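Comment thread on ticket #2218

A.B. wrote:
> Attaching the input chain for the structure job we discussed in standup.
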Amino acid sequence: MQEFARPQSLLLQLALTSFVFLSFVNTGNAGITSTFIRSEWPSVDIPLDNEAFVVPKGYNAPQQVRITQGDYDGKAVIISWVTTDEPGPSKVQYGTSQKGYDLTAEGSTTSYTFYKYKSGYIHHCLIDGLQYDTKYNYKIGQGDSSREFWFQTPPKIHPDASYKFGIIGDLGQTYNSLSTLEHYMQSGGQTVLFVGDLSYADRYEYNDVGLRWDTWGQFVERSTAYQPWIWSAGNHEIEYMPYMGEVLPFKSYLHRYTTPYLASKSSNPLWYAIRRASAHIIVLSSYSPFVKYTPQWVWLYEEFKKVDREETPWLIVLMHVPIYNSNEAHYMEGESMRAEFESWFVHYKVDVVFAGHVHAYERSYRISNIHYNVTSGERYPVPDKSAPVYITVGDGGNQEGLAGRFIDPQPNYSAFREASYGHSTLEIKNRTHAFYHWNRNDDGKKVATDSFILHNQYWGSNMRRRKLKKHYLRSVVDPITNY
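C.D. wrote:
> Ran it. Output below, let me know if you need it in another format.
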């Protein structure tokens, strides 16, 4: 047994060394522009009669079922669905036993019109007081048309709570979107951080705008009915269409997709924060005022002061428009938000900022551009160990196609970039380390393309980490054999 154990131990050490080496290569000084570029452009929408848009059978059967977090700390969910024939009850039956549902919660119903389209009856039901780390079954609808699903609550807020997030952006409803969604569902992710641009319904006209919101809800239900998606809004959610008489921004999005904004004392559902497992997640709106003293600016100023890295060491920011981007598409569009908020990201040691909007993948080094002003300072981004990693994941698969033209030469701040479809996962292992992967969709296959170990900004520089070194090294080594 000793002869066998020795090679196995050496294999583990070699695996750890290899992974760390690859991570070092991917985060070194030489940025990589991948030569892989998909040829399909534009991406093709799934036909309306495809099974991806199947509507459940039965009179007034609930459809477009989705979950998001319903409170600040992960002990509540908001369950939403649509009925088309009549309002019906906005009631959710739920419980932890597979044999029955011993608890109920009552929700509310809303609807809206867009041009001549009239939505179905949209139900939102808050279920609170849940137990951590528990599987709940739930039932919505009536009689033979009722439907049953389940969800898993996160572990209790704790600095060493492990958790796996998926990151998806700019999804749409094409065959490439379907590939992205199916690959994510194979990843073992427990919650999606969605960085904006959901249905792309605004690329249609008149009644088809509403129809394509319905089909997208049916399309993503295979995932959204079973785990939370944390929503952020993109430019395709604005839907400002004066030629149709529609001038109220975010009308469809705000009726359909609720957020727990009040739980973080936000004044608007487009920006808010949640805590989940060991992560504090801040969602920002790229299309709402954020300059000094506006409501979003004031809220973020107060929210950053509430972050407790002793309880939630991982600090993650979501937005739609990237503030670092070396693609010709949407180049410099995030500059105004960068100028306003980047110094806060560095001061509070944000670990990672996820964005979408650009239909390609890109990851930065830890850099900042906070020292420059119009008269002095460093004019270009410089390495900054206190800065976050900036990652653009706007490659979900929508019909606009890929952004295949990168700026040449590759800027020093850009670590890896590629124009193809995919999704990311962030697997938090403990308070010091997380594993990050970007997975390319290559002709229907999931291909792990960019990966690295993300070191926590707070605990990675805290002296107390030395006392925990042995314990955390073991917890990092064990899963590496799976990569």
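A.B. wrote:
> Thanks. Noting for the ticket: Residues 2-26 form the longest helix (25 residues).
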